[in-house]
Amino acid sequence: MTLDPHTTVDVQGASIPKLGFGTWKLKDDDAYDGVAAALKVGYRHIDTAQAYKNEAQVGQAIADSGVAREDIFLTTKVWTERFAAGELEASVKESLSKLKVDQLNLVLLHWPNEDVPLGETIGALNACREAGFTKHIGVSNFTTTWLGEAVATSKAPLVCNQVEYHPFLDQTPVRDAMAKYDMALTAYSPIAQGEVFEDSELKAIAGAHDKTPVQVALRWLIQQERVCAIPRSSSSDHVKSNFEVFDFELSADEMERINALRANNHRLVDPEWAPDWDVAA
Q1: Which residues carry out catalysis?
Q2: For the chain, what is the domain count?
Q3: What is the pLDDT of residues 82-122, one digit of tens each?
Q4: How far is 236 from 110, CA to CA, in rounded Å?
Q5: Quick one: which of 36, 84, 119, 150 could link to 61 by a disulfide (CB 3.0–4.6 Å)?
Q6: How buried is residue 84: exposed, middle or buried, by Cβ count under 10 Å (0-12/13-18/19+)?
Q7: Chain-centre distance of CA 196, in angstroms?
Q8: Residue 78 covered by a domain
């Protein structure tokens, strides 16, 4: 599969760059510097969230970058405490102000929330799209059950489900749902919060390509259909090296060797408010 830095996942009218820059856990100057470095290197997909409390720094870095706004795919996520109708729309307007933009490319519901009817929340999310606050809408951390209900409830297409996905976690049920609904899967924690560094299989494949296990894990993700990845780093060197995944290709055999690692089914992000996760057959 031939890929270049401008390769996108094209679903439901959205064109999402396959490799983006995540900002989870980046605060203050680290958030600003990380986004600035990413845009300088060539990333054109930036991901943030209300809960990260860094939208102002992300927005300032974008404003200062010199990169045209229309060239950047910008995503934020609405926190669960603001899922009620009216409150959700107000929160997205606040995000627009903090990010210093007139419109977002994508707004996601950060997690499912059983305390607010999903129909009410999806309706409010659609209202944000209709008001021009965002071009596209989607969800994050939704299981196949939650996703099916959300798709059935939404007037506008949901273009993305952002979930934890890396070589050690089997997300086959969610991936199958993405294909069924013609949606993108955006992978957060794509290098398993650094655990890919120590895996012998990834090390062996990396050695064959003169790459790092991180680069191999990211390449494995973006070679998959409908999959984007949003690695995060506070190191400018790592921001650059994470982007150097377009000058090699994994063979079908190498992809299968990495696929086999999912038997570990090792989930890293599982807070108390998480839904009942899908289990692969």
Answers
A1: 52
A2: 1
A3: 999 999 999 999 999 999 999 999 999 999 999 999 999 99
A4: 27
A5: 36
A6: middle
A7: 18
A8: yes
CATH number of domain containing 192 = 3.20.20.100
Domain-embedded: residue 245: yes
Chain centroid to Cα 97, Å, comes to 22
Report if residue 3 sits inside a domain: no
Tell me the residue type at 125: L
Tens of pLDDT along 30-87? 999 999 999 999 999 999 999 999 999 999 999 999 999 999 999 999 999 999 999 9
Q: How many CA atoms within 13 Å lie on the side-chain side of 70?
A: 0
> Residue 251 contacts by C-beta under 8 Å, 6 or more apart in sequence?
none
Q: How far apart are the first and last CA of the chain?
A: 28
Range list of β-strands (E), the chain:
8-11, 14-17, 21-22, 45-47, 73-78, 104-109, 134-140, 158-164, 184-188, 227-229
The residue with tokens 């990834």 is 202
Residue 269 lies in a domain: no
Q: Which pair of structure tokens corresponds to residue 164?
A: 């934890």
Provide the β-strand partners of residue 73.
45
Cα angle: 255, vertex 7, 201; to 5 degrees: 20
Q: Which are the contacts of 273, defined by CB distance < 8 A and separation ≥ 6?
A: 80, 111, 113
Compute the distance between CA of residue 147 and CA of residue 153 in angstroms, rounded to an integer. Answer: 10
Structure tokens at 72: 């950047």
